[in-house]
Design a protein that fits this description.
Largest sheet: none
Strand content: under 5%
Distance between the termini: 51 Å
Number of helices: 14
Shape: globular
Helix content: 55-70%
Length: 284
């Protein structure tokens, strides 16, 4: 609305048509946020695309209401991915640019190909983390915030993560979360590849007989599920930061600080055999 005027003022001054035009011109908050970060960072290069997506996630993370945050995350990240995919040039054969190569010599990897390879690198620890959260409610209850913030570029795992968190939000209405419920949710969303991914997971193993599921099993998950997923992401970020990616460097620093909390919890649980990297811990 014009400065100093509320809707009633506009209606009295210019009538219903002016008020209707103002409403029609209003931009939803999600659209404004998307366009702001897109203009600020651009999407012309892999580095710009990464910064754009990171900025969206950071802004979404500041939303206090969990349901609103989840809705913004699903909407904005899907739009960001679609926008970035649309930027990729169509395949044009025989466009070698006149560069001579010996017969049988492969073409050098383009920057786009390198970025694609990085984004599709296997993430076994991340997948194990998601699988454990599906099979063990204690993992989801205790580490839902880590699952939400885990950096996942594999589209099938991302679909599984989003479906898992959506079910977790509505678990009181929908009932228990298990592989069948997750697969049904994904099927209804048209995520058939993600459903096939779940079907290939090894059969879930129950906790050892007599185990204290509330503490002992959670401590085991800290060591064997959560910590490896964090180390896996830290290793990728460390490499990207070494290549000059400022966004990756900033995230590496933030994640390193938070990872110390996980390490401390593992040690408090007397997990003396917690896996350590060359620096003697989860973080560098």
């Amino acid at each position: 609305a014009p400065k100093g005027e509320d809707p009633d003022d506009i209606y009295r001054r210019a009538g219903a048509e002016a008020l209707s035009a103002l409403i029609d011109a209003a931009v939803p908050a999600s659209d404004a946020l998307f366009e702001r970060e897109k203009l600020r960072h651009g999407i012309e290069t892999p580095e710009a695309q990464a910064a754009f997506q990171a900025a969206l996630k950071e802004a979404i993370g500041r939303i206090g209401d969990r349901e609103t945050s989840r809705a913004f995350f699903s909407d904005l990240m899907s739009r960001a991915n679609a926008t970035i995919r649309a930027q990729r040039p169509a395949f044009a054969p025989n466009q070698g640019g006149g560069q001579f190569r010996r017969k049988g010599e492969p073409a050098p990897a383009t920057a786009e190909l390198k970025a694609h390879a990085t984004s599709h690198a296997p993430r076994p620890a991340a997948e194990l983390f998601l699988r454990a959260a599906v099979d063990l409610p204690q993992i989801l209850a205790s580490y839902g915030n880590w699952i939400e913030r885990l950096h996942i570029t594999d589209p099938d795992l991302e679909a599984i993560r989003e479906a898992l968190l959506a079910l977790a939000d509505d678990h009181e209405e929908l009932g228990a979360i298990d592989r069948a419920a997750l697969s049904l949710h994904l099927t209804r969303s048209g995520q058939d590849r993600a459903v096939a991914r779940i079907s290939r997971w090894p059969k879930a193993k129950p906790p050892p007989e007599g185990a204290d599921v509330g503490a002992e099993w959670l401590a085991l998950a800290t060591r064997e599920v959560v910590a490896p997923a964090i180390r896996e992401e830290l290793a990728e970020l460390r490499q990207a930061a070494a290549d000059g990616d400022d966004t990756a460097f900033a995230r590496f620093q933030a994640l390193s600080r938070e990872a110390r909390d996980i390490e401390a919890r593992a040690r408090e649980a007397k997990l003396d055999d917690v896996q350590e990297d060359d620096a003697g811990g989860l973080v560098a």
